[in-house]
Fold this sequence. Notes:
Helix content: under 10%
Largest sheet: 5 strands, antiparallel
Low-confidence stretches: 1-25, 108-113
Shape: globular
Strand content: 25-35%
Number of helices: 1
Number of strands: 7
Amino acid sequence: xxxxxxxxxxxxxxxxxxxxxxxxxxxxxxxxxxxxxxxxxxxxxxxxxxxxxxxxxxxxxxxxxxxxxxxxxxxxxxxxxxxxxxxxxxxxxxxxxxxxxxxxxxxxxxxxx
Length: 113
């Protein structure tokens, strides 16, 4: 868990990858420089293309999983929230950014090798 003023990924622009069964998995990644620590509410926030994006931690509870959820609020105030809890903060951030993409076709997702 990140604390204080720590940046989740430092200043690195490298792509995070995981190995699954020997194959390189496709991993979503956020625009790191866009995200700032929200000290009042916890989590991270970003402003992209007029949208307000938030990612926050959900602690583990009996019968529930822990992880990160996102929400995106468009310029007119309509809110969209994640349907699942993500294990990695980078993935939650990338999904939030995907929702705020200016071109609807880009909202389908971007993955990197």
